[in-house]
Design brief:
This protein is of the alpha+beta class. It contains 3 helices and 7 strands.
Length: 169
């Protein structure tokens, strides 16, 4: 089956299921639904700042809302490429605390349906995208939620309050 056809079919099925489950789901946990868990009970993907693959060029931003707000998600991209777990894992493996502390990350689910504007994706027949929500914990601190999207590609940075493993720190 053609990759575009498969991606379109998968997205349509997931979109219809996710929209239906979002509409029916109680609005606890900020409307987060659709978590996939590993055999150990972790949301997929999950990992730490010591994982092998990371983004050495990633730099922090000064924008206090970037990644923390549903209206300013990290635009990781990768949906059509089938990189829905790889690219977020590389991104989150790059993050360290403000003074270099280790971090852990775990996808907690999806939320917040929106109209896709990326022409590559809309041309494949996908009109609705979702945000993925990740819980990121800096060693010794309370976890924070970071919003990302696979349905848009932009210049990505580390959220304010984080440093990175690479030269961009």
């Amino acid at each position: 089956m053609d990759t575009k056809v498969l991606a379109s079919y998968t997205a349509i099925v997931l979109s219809s299921l996710s929209v239906a489950s979002m509409a029916a789901a109680p609005q606890k946990n900020n409307g987060i639904v659709g978590v996939t868990k590993s055999s150990t009970g972790h949301g997929i993907p999950y990992g730490t700042s010591s994982d092998k693959d990371y983004l050495p060029w990633l730099k922090p931003t000064n924008d206090q809302e970037y990644g923390y707000s549903k209206s300013k998600p990290v635009e990781i991209g990768g949906f059509l490429e089938g990189r829905g777990n790889d690219w977020p894992a590389q991104y989150f493996s790059s993050l360290l605390g403000p003074i270099g502390e280790a971090t852990t990350f775990e996808r907690v689910g999806s939320c917040c349906a929106f109209q896709v504007k990326n022409p590559k994706i809309t041309e494949a027949g996908i009109k609705v995208g979702f945000l993925d929500v990740f819980k990121v914990t800096i060693q010794g601190r309370d976890p924070v939620l970071i919003y990302v999207t696979l349905y848009a590609e932009g210049d990505i940075s580390a959220p304010s309050g984080f440093t990175t493993r690479g030269k961009g720190a």
